[in-house]
Amino acid sequence: GHFGRVYLATLMHGNQSAEIVAVKTMKYKAEECEMVELFLKEAVLMKDFQHPHVLGIKGITFADDSTPMVILPFMANGDLRNYILNPELNITILNLLMMGMQVAHGMAYLSSHHFVHRDLAARNCMVNNSGVVKIADFGMSRQLISCEYYRVKHGKDPFPVRWMAPECLEAKIFTTKSDVWAYGVLLWELMTRGAVPYAEVENWQVAGLIQSGELLKQPPFCPDVVYAIMMKCWTQDAQERPTFDQIISDVNSVVS
């Protein structure tokens, strides 16, 4: 994750029962107060999420050395990218679109609560043992309260350039509309079963391609109507991009 490592653990409910969970720990020392604050801020963001396609938390605890640990539901099938990369799974285009629909529902919920994810990608969605997809990894998320965008200050944090909209690269401005751009890339990931966007070029070259209007090509076997949804998400003018509710309607019209 953005801030820590994740371990498999057992959560004891008194003497009654035990539950398999995931525990996220910090990869920084507890003395690094700023990182502890950011780590806990991610947990606080997640505690209020109540949606079938957004990963919530079960609780927060502390290790003996005061390092915070976040207790998460165990997602047996791991992250979405590795899930769709598994050649042993017989996944159809319809299955992939239904996964995309679940992510769109989760993102519609987050945007309705004024959250911008900033790092939406297949690797940051999780799949449980029933095949339900949940958006996760909120280490870069921000709540938009007094304004409609979040502007990044100059810093050293790495950014997922292959999923970033032009305005993110040019002005470091993130909005729900930049999440829509990233969703288009996630949909492309689904249709390619986990390919890396712009795999033929280095990270430092990707920004120039995106800013010049170079878009990801239509994947083989991807229906034209699905690629059209991606293209809407990648409209250069952020305000012209669809909302997540509109995306849900568009994807639903394809699968129904």
Automatic annotation (TrEMBL):
SUPFAM superfamilies assigned: Protein kinase-like (PK-like)
InterPro entries named in the record: Kinase-like_dom_sf, Prot_kinase_dom, RTK, Ser-Thr/Tyr_kinase_cat_dom, Tyr_kinase_AS, Tyr_kinase_cat_dom
GO CC term (a single one): receptor complex
Protein kinase domain residues: 1-255
Organism domain of life: Eukaryota
GO biological process: cell migration; cell surface receptor protein tyrosine kinase signaling pathway; nervous system development
Keyword annotations of the record: ATP-binding, Kinase, Nucleotide-binding, Phosphoprotein, Transferase, Tyrosine-protein kinase
Protein name: Protein kinase domain-containing protein
The organism of origin for this protein: Helobdella robusta (Californian leech)
Gene name per UniProt: 20196211
